[in-house]
């Protein structure tokens, strides 16, 4: 059974509910409907501009992650060992995930890695559908860089270390862009 997301006594001045859920990869369709612009501002507003609907705290996602990220990762690793939430990949991951196989090249900026330190699914050209681009799993990345928390590796299986293939999608298809991270399956 899944434990509830970490709850904490917090005032509106610290962090609001939609921003907290954004950091925890726990936004809901209701959040998208009611706070869509705020979520977009959190995702893309790290330049310090106020955005369309800034967080009531006035802080960017990067600033909020710096304050709450460690607490979130501890909870996250307990629930989903061998993985990390999207904000961790954006703000804390020290390097991109290694490509381990597959055929296909990234068209455009190979440094743009918006989803879990991987290129977007619509960024590949000249892909062999029978051998798509493959990258190390989150668990393999965390183990290689010695970033697993104490006791986390014991909870992983061989499957958690299996490479991840990126199934290329045509540009502008469903599941590419802002909401694509919500459509990626968890490793468990």
Give a verbal description of the structure.
This protein has 188 residues and is mainly α. The chain has 2 domains: 12-79, no CATH class; 84-188, no CATH class. The protein contains 6 helices and 5 strands, in the order ααααββββαβα. The chain has helices spanning 17-23, 29-44, 61-79, 86-91, 138-144, 180-183, and strands at residues 99-101, 105-106, 124-125, 134-135, 164-165. Strands 1-4-5 form a 3-stranded antiparallel β-sheet, with no helix packed on it. The protein is globular. The model is unreliable at 173-188 (pLDDT under 50).
Summarize the structure.
The chain is built from six helices and five strands; from the N terminus they run ααααββββαβα.
Biggest sheet character: 3 strands, antiparallel
Order of helices and strands: HHHHEEEEHEH
* Secondary structure: helix percent: 25-40%
Span between N and C termini?
Answer: 13 Å
- Return the structural class: mainly alpha
Mean pLDDT reading = 81
Question: Uncertain segments of ≥5 residues (pLDDT<50)?
Answer: 173-188
Shape: globular
Number of strands: 5
- Radius of gyration computed on alpha carbons: 17 Å
Output the strand order for the largest sheet.
1-4-5
Number of helices: 6
What is the total domain count?
A: 2
Strand fraction: 5-15%
């Amino acid at each position: 059974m899944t434990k509830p997301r970490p709850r904490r006594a917090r005032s509106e001045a610290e962090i609001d509910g939609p921003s907290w859920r954004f950091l925890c990869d726990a936004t809901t369709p209701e959040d998208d409907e009611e706070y869509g612009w705020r979520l977009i501002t959190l995702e893309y507003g790290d330049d310090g501009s106020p955005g369309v609907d800034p967080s009531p705290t006035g802080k960017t996602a990067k600033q909020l992650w710096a304050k709450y990220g460690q607490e979130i990762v501890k909870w996250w690793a307990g629930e989903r060992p061998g993985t990390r939430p999207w904000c961790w990949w954006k703000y804390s991951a020290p390097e991109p995930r290694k490509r381990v196989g597959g055929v296909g090249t990234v068209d455009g900026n190979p440094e743009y890695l918006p989803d879990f330190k991987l290129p977007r699914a619509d960024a590949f050209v000249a892909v062999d559908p029978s051998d798509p681009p493959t990258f190390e799993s989150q668990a393999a990345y965390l183990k290689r860089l010695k970033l697993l928390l104490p006791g986390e590796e014991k909870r992983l299986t061989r499957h958690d270390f299996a490479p991840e293939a990126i199934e290329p999608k045509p540009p502008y298809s469903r599941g590419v862009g802002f909401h694509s991270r919500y459509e990626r399956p968890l490793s468990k």
